[in-house]
Structure formats: structure tokens, C-alpha cells
Design a protein that fits this description.
The chain has 302 residues and is α+β, with helices and mostly antiparallel strands. Helix content is 20%, strand content 26%. Strands 5, 6, 7, 8, 9, 10 and 13 form a 7-stranded antiparallel sheet that branches. Strands 1-2 form a two-stranded antiparallel ribbon. The protein has a two-stranded antiparallel ribbon with strand order 3-4. The radius of gyration is 39 Å and the shape is elongated.
């Protein structure tokens, strides 16, 4: 057997060493690359979300109209869970806004459908009405309903705009008058959807108010006398200002006449400011004097 030259053996040995080194380097690089890919994937992979249950954010009383702020999601421990509880991902919190609590809830107590009633469901008004109160619906327009920004649970004042005919004045001219007839009325329901077609707001057509028996008569009559509108009250109003049943529409009636808006219009009431007021001539012996007629309330008509 021929003996290979030393130079050839050296070349074979060098080639073997290069091949072994390349294989070891490639194996190390592939291993390191696989570790990097696995580390990146573990960072990008989100952790499974914890289970959350819809609970009461604060104490909720029976008959309370629920708002978005009355609810919160609370993480629930692993293990069996009551099927009546509402889990995150099944329904949105907004879908419960406007509902009424059939029973009271303690802070942190899970919300269940058996203890709340949604608008339109049977028994909704019976659950939300306080003892001795009545529910009355009034028509709503884009202007009278404050462009759709009145929601269940808000408190409003009810106004009437009508035509009045002054009595006792020399000029029998019809005037416009706006008057607040009821104060601090609670809104029970509004037939308004949160979003209409193509994301546009859908204005309501009626609003249901909680009133006393006497106030329901006032609203029924006022709706025939003129146009009703509502003004939204602040949440900071004192509870003592809430409406109560009485023979009068309101304890502090306020009204505005068209002559107050436009000073060019004649004043319908009799007084020093109205120079065209009817006067009465009084004869005393050989002398006489003139006196303005006693003011009378204006007669209201449509």
C-alpha cells in the first residue's frame, strides 16, 4: 500500500478540522437561534385573562335606576362559579344602564339578571316607582328633550310655553309666556337608543316621569294648553328641593313674558310700567282722581 505524502495527510487533517468546526459552529448557532425565537414567542404570547364578574360598585337600593358607574368588573378566583353571575366578555356594562334594581345590592355583590329589570320588560315601572307615585309620559322633541341628553335617573324641571290673553288691559293683545310648572321631577325612562343608523344618535319621542297624583293632573292639563319642554337639573341639587305633592304646581312659580324678551312688545300686565293700563275715575265731592285698575291674573289659552 502506497504511503501518502505528509503534505497530503496534512491537507486531509486540515479539511477534517474545518468541517468539524463548521458543524459545531452551525449547531451552536442554530441552538442559540431557536432559544431566541422561543424567548420572543413567550414574551409576545399574552397571558390568559383572569375571570372577572360584574359586581355592584357601591350599595344599590331597591328601585334605583342603574347607571354605568354603578357597575365594575371584579377578578374572580378559580373554581366553580355560579351560572347566574355575569362574566366579562359575555355582555357589556353599557347594556345594563337604565335598568332598575328589584332587590338591593351590597358593595361588591355580583349582579344577577333575576335581581334587575330592564326597560321594556314586564314590571319595569312597578319596580322603579316609589310608593304613592305615578308614571306619566310626555312628548319629547329634539329641543324639548335637550338633544337627547336626558337619561333615566336624571331630574328635570317641566316648562310650558303658551299664549296668554291679558284681562283688564286697554289693548287686548295675545302674548307668549313660558312658565316652570313642576320642579325636580325624576325621569324614569326615555325611549332613546344609544346609537342609531350609521352610528348616529336616535332621538326619543317620549319621556316617562315620576310624579304625584296631583302633578299627573297638572301635566295632563298642561299638555293641552301649550307646548311642554324640559330643563335638566344638576346632580348637586339638595334632596329638600325634590317635588312634593301639593295643590299648587310649584311652591316658587316663575314665568317669563314675551315683553321681557323684546321690550318693543306691549306689557300685558297692569301696573306703573304699562302706561296703557286701564284707569278708573273716582269722584269725591267736587273733585275727581284716576287710579289704575287692580291687576288680574292673565287668562291662559292655546
Amino acid at each position: 500500500m502506497p504511503v501518502l505524502p505528509a503534505r497530503t495527510l496534512a491537507l486531509f487533517a486540515l479539511a477534517f478540522l474545518l468541517a468539524a468546526g463548521t458543524a459545531l459552529f452551525a449547531r451552536s448557532w442554530l441552538k442559540e437561534r431557536a432559544a431566541q425565537i422561543e424567548s420572543t414567542a413567550s414574551i409576545a404570547r399574552p397571558a390568559p385573562p383572569p375571570r372577572a364578574v360584574l359586581v355592584a360598585h357601591a350599595a344599590i337600593s331597591r328601585g334605583q335606576i342603574l347607571k354605568r358607574s354603578d357597575f365594575t368588573w371584579q377578578t374572580w378566583p378559580d373554581g366553580p362559579i355560579d351560572p347566574a353571575y355575569i362574566l366579562s366578555g359575555t355582555r357589556s356594562v353599557e347594556s345594563f344602564a337604565g335598568s332598575v334594581a328589584r332587590e338591593p345590592f351590597a358593595p361588591g355583590e355580583p349582579i344577577t339578571l333575576a335581581k334587575i329589570v330592564a326597560p321594556g320588560d314586564r314590571g319595569f315601572l312597578a319596580a322603579v316607582l316609589r310608593p304613592g307615585m305615578r308614571a306619566v309620559s310626555v312628548p319629547v322633541t329634539a329641543t324639548s328633550g335637550i338633544s337627547g341628553f336626558i337619561f333615566p335617573g336624571d331630574r328635570v324641571d317641566l316648562l310650558i310655553t303658551q299664549t296668554v290673553m291679558p284681562t283688564g288691559a286697554a289693548e287686548q293683545t295675545a302674548h307668549k309666556e313660558s312658565e316652570t310648572i313642576l320642579h325636580n321631577i325624576r325621569v324614569l325612562a326615555v325611549d332613546q337608543r344609544l346609537a342609531g343608523k350609521d352610528g348616529e344618535a336616535a332621538l326619543a319621542h317620549t319621556a316617562t316621569l315620576e310624579v304625584t297624583a296631583k302633578q299627573s293632573e297638572i301635566i295632563a292639563l298642561a299638555s293641552e294648553m301649550g307646548r311642554l319642554s324640559m330643563s335638566l337639573r344638576s346632580l348637586a341639587d339638595a334632596p329638600a328641593q325634590k317635588s312634593t305633592d301639593s295643590s299648587a304646581p310649584t311652591q316658587n312659580p316663575t314665568y317669563t313674558l314675551d315683553s321681557e324678551v323684546n321690550p318693543l312688545l306691549p306689557k300685558p300686565f297692569i301696573g306703573k310700567e304699562n302706561q296703557s293700563a286701564t284707569t278708573i275715575t273716582i269722584l269725591r265731592g267736587n273733585g275727581q282722581s284716576e287710579k289704575a285698575a287692580v291687576s288680574q291674573p292673565p287668562s291662559r289659552g292655546v
